[in-house]
């Protein structure tokens, strides 16, 4: 259970999420994949805050929590993103009768 | 240490297997349920990494709110039977994702990381595991890890102190963002905006 193991798990999760976000047609599947990517980033941030030395460790012991603080912010942004994202999905579903991204061509002339 | 390794590998298999399921399973509802499994596994990772508070927040917000919202959205849109179909970018995105994976793993393995010195490890762990709870004086002196002078310093080093201390500006910005997202979502889902029937 080394630091690198956590980073590699996080990289694998991120790339699975990236593939899903690029290659799926259903907008809900894309949103789920983006959530996967958020989680992968959080894992690597928290792992770094456990294993690595912050530059200002000698002055301020609380710098070892910086990674966790950033993870809290990322979780908040993810919650805001999913709220807005689902709002857009419903608006799109109302006008298009579909949640297929390839059919979302309303703004193309 | 061995026990933690076993837990780590179980969580890894859970997380990666379920994540593959999320992007590959055809039924969107099952994909949403598998996403819950990924969230729980990541919360387990947080426990392994001394971040108990984040583990709880992960379950509350991701499993309790985000996954439920996604499941609602899956059930409210009729496209579920069409399922989780791939688009034309299938092969390029596999290539791109695997190239990125290879480069990320190379970076993770090749970089000379500046690890915490062993004598600091215990102190840091104490700060991280007690990041939320208030440390009592007895608990600290009994553990004998830090001197009384450092005690005050560690007590002021909790996650909450950081959030409304050093990081108060991002904290306020994020709360504004949440408010804006709430209002935006309400405006977006209002039926027939402008006709007054909302």
Would you mind describing this structure in some detail?
Helices cover 71% and strands 0% of the residues of chain A. Chain A is mainly α. Chain A has one domain (3-103): Helix Hairpins (Orthogonal Bundle), CATH 1.10.287. In chain A, helix 1 runs antiparallel to helix 2 (27-51) and helix 2 runs antiparallel to helix 3. The radius of gyration of chain A is 18 Å and the shape is elongated. Chain B has a domain at 1-100: Four Helix Bundle (Hemerythrin (Met), subunit A) (Up-down Bundle). Helix content of chain B is 73%, strand content 0%. Chain B has helices at residues 2-24, 28-48, 52-76, 90-110, 118-129, 137-143, 148-155, 159-163, 168-189. Classes of the chains: A mainly alpha (109), B mainly alpha (198). At the A-B interface, helix 1, helix 2 and helix 3 of A face helix 1, helix 2, helix 3, helix 4 and helix 5 of B.
CATH architectural arrangement of chain A: Orthogonal Bundle
Q: Helical element count of chain B?
A: 9
What's the end-to-end separation of chain B, in Å? 58 Å
Specify the biggest β-sheet of chain B: none
The total beta strand count of chain A reads 0
Query: Any idea how many domains of chain A?
Result: 1
Shape category of chain A: elongated
Overall CATH architecture of the domain at 1-100 in chain B: Up-down Bundle
Strand count of chain B? 0
Please state the structural category of chain B: mainly alpha
Oligomer state equals heterodimer
